[in-house]
Amino acid sequence: MWIDLTPEMERYARSIEKAMKGVVAPLGPNYTGLAVDERFFIGYLGDTFVAKMLELAGKRYSYIPHLIGQEGTDDIDVWVMGERVTIEIKATPSLNHRYLMMPSQQFARFVPDHPTIYVAVFIGTEGAEIAGYAHREDFEETFVRIPTMQVHRDNLHSIDYLLERLDNADI
């Protein structure tokens, strides 16, 4: 599913990135040792694309950006038949990437205590493709400079299938 990038979305993600950098020294948890300068911006922009998708679809969701040391959510909470489900968003600054990925150390450390799905967002200059989602058991471990958990984009579940199952905002 394609979502266009708006100037408002970019400004919002930049403002959260700035707030995060004010809280974290120098760049926060770095599981890879390969930190990218704009990794917070990319992550928050991914969150913003998914929130926009949910808004456009009329789905119930909660998103309060989590700044280390402050209250907030992991990523975005949605509801399926009244049950809270967390969407853990993994964003990458390229439309050409083929995998939903996360460092194995991060995957092992953050074992959710409630249902969680992982959504792949591939970001380009004009918008993003929300490519699909995966369940925790869909990931396979590999080695890409570091131990990494991944799901190939061809093996992701349909984002449309997910949207059909989410509670509407008017519930």
Describe the structure in your own words.
The model has no long low-confidence stretch (mean pLDDT about 85). The protein is of the alpha+beta class. Helix 1 packs across helix 2. The protein is built from four helices and nine strands; from the N terminus they run βααββββαββββα.
- Portion of residues in beta strands equals 25-35%
Question: Which class do the helix and strand fractions yield?
Answer: alpha+beta
Count of individual helical segments: 4
Q: Biggest β-sheet: count, sense, barrel? A: 6 strands, mixed
* Strand/helix succession: EHHEEEEHEEEEH
Radius of gyration: 15 Å
- Overall geometry comes to globular
Question: Which runs of at least 5 residues are low in confidence (pLDDT < 50)?
Answer: none
* Annotated CATH architecture: 3-Layer(aba) Sandwich
Q: What name is given to the CATH topology?
A: Trna Endonuclease, Chain: A, domain 1
Overall mean confidence score, pLDDT: 87
CATH class placement: Alpha Beta
- Widest β-sheet, arrangement of strands: 1-7-6-4-3-2
How many structural domains are formed by the residues?
Answer: 1
Helix content: 25-40%
Count every beta strand, where a strand is a DSSP E run of 2 or more residues.
Answer: 9
Termini distance?
A: 24 Å
